[in-house]
Amino acid sequence: xxxLSMFRKKEHLPEKVxxxxxxxxxxxxxxxxxRQEWHKYESRSGLYRYLRDRVPIISSAIWNWVRLCNxxxxxxxxxxxxxxxxxxxxxxxxxxxxxTVVGLKRTGLGSLLELFFQExxxxxxxxxRIIPLASGTGIDYFEVLDTSKIEWEKKGRWIPYIKRDDRKxxxxxxxxxxxxxxxxRDHPGGISFLASIEFVxxxxxxxxxxxxxxxxxxxxxxxxxxxxxxxRFDNENDAKYIKRAEKYFDDAVVKFQQLDPDxxxxxxxxxxxxxxxxxxxxxxxxxxxxEQVIEDxxxxxxxxxxxxGRSHGTTKNWVQAQFNLLMQVVDSIQEEGKALAEWILNTExxxxxxxxxxxxxxxxxxxxYQLEREKAAALRFETxxxxxRRGYISKDEGAKxxxxxxxxxxxxxxxx
Length: 416
Prior knowledge:
- By secondary structure, the protein is of the alpha+beta class.
- The chain has helices at 3-8, 44-54, 56-69, 81-97, 110-123, 198-218, 238-257, 285-300, 316-352, 370-389, 395-401, and strands at 15-20, 31-35, 73-78, 125-132, 139-145, 150-155, 157-164, 167-170, 176-180, 222-227, 271-276, 357-362.
């Protein structure tokens, strides 16, 4: 059953648990989503997870976003040597128990950060809280919260609450973490990429269904062999003519049935061969239309076609410009994952009473244009160096052009 059937054909499913109804005349579609027996859609996040897990182009987009952002990371400690060694042992013990899944042996914060990016790119937000040890001397584990159950009240600033057993519990206790992708003044919870493509995704799935139905209706291509009956002889009665015509027909059928792929057949001009079925004469405008819809989905996911394996003949310079923009977005979102990691690490050190500051660093993504960038940097350095040596600018001015605060003060003999 496709996505459209899941949304529209309520009679085929056991129960409708949520409905988002809008007025189509006001240019907003009506979207009904229901649950299957094994999966509940109690909120919009359930719908987004369904789209992520069932629609290939969305699954690929989210998969790529998560892997681009969740690169291998490392922790750096700032403090005295003895305290740093003490902090290393404390954080190693924390890494063994911080995972949200019992039995998961992935080292460090990698699994938690992967979950962070997965939730951010699926639902547009991530919330969790630190559960301290009973003694209050460290972190027991990190609990990831269901953001669909978090409510926000504005009391000068937005205050998060969570409902538990008909009780509203405030999360403003210093142990709560939240990030909302694209959050604005009225939506502190964040907005998912998928919010902009719900309607487009439904259209794309409807087109896939129509394509499957039309293809099934057209069937597979077959040969249609048309044999013109032979002319009747003057002295031939009905029985002889019918016998001769049937033999001619049967002989032609046998020849076609026994024809090997590398053989040819020769007949009089009274045999015509045509191909029927398989949609050979069907227009293929649906493919162009579906490509346009898929482009809208990719655009809504804030990606470029080549990132999800679709090539539109883009030039190298254009792809390089897109790559640079993509990496800037990755860097900005990685900062939010870095904030989560450092908050957890420094909270653990603070609860343990260790005066050391932890910093989390993501490894950079592999740059296919690194050689070109290095050549450009070398040329830029040579240009600045020439201006300094010829007296057009000072050493400090040259250092600032290269990104340094000031020139190195040690006396160095300059080349003439």
